[in-house]
Specification:
This protein is α+β, with helices and mostly antiparallel strands. Helices cover 52% and strands 7% of the residues. Strand 3 and strand 4 form a beta hairpin. It is globular. Bound molecules: glutathione. Glutathione binds next to helix 1 and helix 5.
């Protein structure tokens, strides 16, 4: 399998964490996503993935899978141990709902293409874009914290076993800290992230800091 990826990408980090938990190796194909060197919007990569986004997984059957949750669930079905979705039906739906709250309601509002387009709006400067990012992360993480608070019973989002909820939460929390948001304002998230930092599959696969 081949993974189109980028080291700073939060969405790629989710897939790398899942691969590490499964102990599965893939060939990594780096795609630049920032600035003048960005390859993700160039014709060559758009022919591979018309969405122009990373991650994208090319399976051994040469099927391209886009969208990190679809990729993580594909890996989970293909390599069932350890499972990344809880055994209980409601917990499975809950775990996916946390993953989607992060992917769809937070991360989708703040990737480079959004910042690039915002920057073209008259009156919008770097500070305005940074403020936009902090706003959506703060609002989204506050909602995720409230959701987690209603159901938390163990060290992680669902009990003590890593699930897709943790796999999506961890990179977003690292990103939040990097732009100056204090995780302590979300006590459950802060506590879960400190537990996840002790698990090598998470600690070794956080998104890299932007240079
Ligand atoms: N919903 C997608 C999001 C993918 C995404 O936005 N990836 C970012 C990197 S974290 C990207 O490729 N951005 C390029 C851009 O915004 O131009 C997923 O979960 O895979």
């Amino acid at each position: 399998m081949k993974l189109y990826e980028n080291e700073i990408s939060s969405a790629t980090s989710r897939v790398r964490i899942a691969l590490a938990l499964k102990g599965v190796a893939v060939e990594k194909l780096p795609i630049a996503i920032l600035g003048a060197e960005a390859e993700n919007r160039q014709a060559g990569y758009l022919r591979v993935n018309p969405l122009g986004l990373v991650p994208a997984l090319l399976t051994d059957e040469r099927v391209l899978i886009t969208q990190s949750l679809a990729i993580v669930e594909y890996l989970d079905e293909r390599y069932p141990e350890p499972p990344l979705l809880p055994g209980n039906l409601e917990d499975r739906a809950y775990s996916r709902s946390i993953a989607l709250a992060i992917a769809s309601e937070i991360h989708a509002l703040i990737p480079p293409r959004i910042a690039a387009h915002l920057s073209t709006i008259p009156g919008m400067d770097r500070n305005g874009v940074a403020d936009w990012n902090r706003h959506w992360i703060r609002e989204g993480m506050t909602a995720v914290e409230a959701l987690i608070t209603t159901r938390r019973t163990g060290a992680l989002v669902v009990g003590d076993t890593p699930s897709v909820a943790d796999i999506f939460l961890f990179p977003q929390a690292i990103g939040a800290q990097r732009i100056g948001l204090d995780l302590d304002q979300w006590p459950n998230i802060a506590d879960i992230v400190s537990s996840l930092r002790t698990i090598p599959a998470f600690a070794d696969n956080a998104p890299a800091a932007r240079k």
